[in-house]
């Protein structure tokens, strides 16, 4: 992994899922940053920069949609991918309408997340 590789911030409150997703994304050659909450990500955002954000929709405190809306209100916002294990009618359209770069339903295949990140980061 090179110092110039894109950085993907992973916001997931389930430790095991966050670690697994971090390993998976690193295996694609991207650098990763891990956050257990949207609040932690936003608090540390000025100190760390990311090229893409993957946020779980359902977390205690801020949801992934809350993170998306907060980052979209800033001048330079990275693309945000929303993921969820609880897909519900209208959730995808709400997230995409709010500006999500992609919407993924867990569990997703390795190829799905790889293609999603390539489409977003490998211009």
UniProtKB/TrEMBL annotation:
InterPro entries: Bact_response_regulator, CheY-like_superfamily, Sig_transdc_resp-reg_receiver
Residues recorded with modification 4-aspartylphosphate: 56
Pfam families: Response_reg
Gene3D superfamilies reported for this sequence: 3.40.50.2300
Residue span, Response regulatory domain: 7-121
Keywords for this protein: Phosphoprotein
PROSITE patterns, per the entry: RESPONSE_REGULATORY
Tree of life domain: Bacteria
Name the UniProt record assigns to this protein: Response regulatory domain-containing protein
């Amino acid at each position: 992994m090179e110092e110039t590789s894109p950085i993907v911030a992973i916001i997931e409150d389930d430790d095991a899922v966050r670690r697994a997703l971090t390993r998976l994304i690193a295996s694609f050659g991207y650098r990763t940053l891990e956050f257990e909450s949207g609040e932690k990500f936003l608090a540390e955002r000025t100190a760390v920069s990311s090229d893409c954000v993957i946020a779980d929709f359902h977390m205690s405190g801020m949801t992934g949609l809350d993170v998306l809306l907060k980052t979209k209100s800033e001048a330079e916002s990275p693309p945000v991918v929303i993921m969820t294990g609880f897909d519900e009618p209208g959730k995808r359209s709400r997230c995409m309408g709010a500006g999500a770069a992609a919407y993924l339903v867990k569990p997703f295949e390795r190829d799905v997340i790889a293609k999603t990140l390539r489409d977003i980061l490998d211009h």
